[in-house]
Task: inverse folding
C-alpha cells in the first residue's frame, strides 16, 4: 500500500448521520449593531426573520449597516437512513 499523495482528492465515506434542528427545541435569535458606540440590539426572539426586519429598520433610520446576528437552536443527530431514536424515550 502506498502513502497518500498530498493534495490528492480523498474519497469521503457516505454520511451515516445528519444533524438538524430538534423538532421540539427552541430557536433564539438576536442582533446587535456593530457601528462603534451605537449599542442598539434586539431582544431575543424565537422568530429569526424578525431580527433581520429590525436590522433593516435600524439601518434605514441610522445608516448603520453592519450587525452581529446570532441564531441558536437545539440540534439533534439522527441516522441518515431516517432511523433515529425518539428523543423523548431515549436515556
Ligand atoms: Zn446602530
Result:
Amino acid at each position: 500500500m502506498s502513502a497518500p499523495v498530498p493534495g490528492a482528492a480523498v474519497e469521503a465515506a457516505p454520511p451515516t448521520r445528519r444533524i438538524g434542528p430538534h423538532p421540539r427545541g427552541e430557536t433564539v435569535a438576536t442582533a446587535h449593531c456593530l457601528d462603534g458606540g451605537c449599542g442598539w440590539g434586539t431582544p431575543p426572539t424565537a422568530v429569526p426573520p424578525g431580527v433581520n426586519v429590525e436590522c433593516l429598520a435600524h439601518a434605514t433610520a441610522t445608516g448603520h449597516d453592519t450587525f452581529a446576528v446570532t441564531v441558536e437552536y437545539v440540534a439533534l443527530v439522527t441516522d441518515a437512513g431516517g432511523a433515529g431514536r425518539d428523543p423523548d424515550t431515549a436515556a
